[in-house]
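Limitations

Structures in this collection are predictions, not experimental determinations, and the ligand pose is part of the prediction. Treat each record accordingly. The example that follows, with molybdenum atom as the small molecule, is included so readers can see exactly what is and is not provided: the inputs are given verbatim, and the output is the predicted complex.
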Amino acid sequence: MPGRFKPDLRWSDVTPRSMFLNRRQILAGLGAAGLGAGLGQPAAARLQARPSRYSTDEAPNSFEDITSYNNFYEFGLDKSDPAANAHRLTVNPWSVRIDGLVERPGTYDLSDLTRGVALEERIYRFRCVEAWAMVVPWIGFELGALLNRVGVKPGARFVAFETLVRPDEMPGQRRPVLDWPYREGLRLDEAMHPLTILATGLYGEELPKQNGAPIRLVVPWKYGFKSIKSIVRISLTDRMPKTTWNMQNPREYGFYANVNPNVDHPRWSQATERRIGAGLFAGRQKTQMFNGYGEYVAGLYAGQDLRVDF
Ligand SMILES: Nc1nc2c(c(=O)[nH]1)N[C@H]1C(S)=C(S)[C@@H](COP(=O)(O)O)O[C@H]1N2
Ligand SMILES: [Mo]
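Predicted complex:
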């Protein structure tokens, strides 16, 4: 990996969560030009120097919601299991193997992968196939930038991802609940799309372990199961890769898994969703096509029948 760039941001630079709203207000008044200059808080300003036009202005869920209601079967099946068990996971050192149809394959230390990469905040809607939803202020960078750095070879058409297998630290892996490792995949154009990020943090902090530390995928227009956590392998391939939930139940979970109010899950409707944290009497909200990101991604699926390619 090219090593001549200086990192924009180190974990030690990241501003405490308590300052999050504060910083956003400061920067909202700053404009794009004078970022960070003379603020007396250069590190904080650097993080906020990169807000994104892709961020929603909907209010993010609380840190508490985002870190206590999780799906991460490596740590158990209940929503509270990841928060209870993921503290056992060691995330340092961490390396990611990048292989297959790439110019510069290798096993890269995470710090090499993020060196010189500008981290951005992306406030995205997040929609689980189980019909609950949140808004999450991720910190991360575009997957496409990483793929460009390692060099995608001409024949590549898909990207496959794998999660760590470490049953000593991941109690859920001691049982064959899923066919470990958890696997996911994207078509190359989906992987290169600027909305697709690798997240290394949220709420301006290092990514909590229950959310997929130290690095996880976020694909905001697809059901949450595509957003694979704690990634240790990224492979460029010429074939559609096997993916965990599709292997588990191909009738219920397709490869594409685009959020779609018109294609129901065989066992429940996808027309509406429940916003976590909205309160008991808030009622359900309408599911948006492509989770509201259609203006950016609908073109990727021109000519495809999304009932067939679900
Ligand atoms: N390795 C791994 N990645 C995973 C999962 C999992 O069980 N294991 N669950 C998926 C599902 S179903 C969802 S909804 C999201 C949940 O992400 P969150 O807990 O950060 O909200 O993670 C996805 N990534
Ligand atoms: Mo999910």
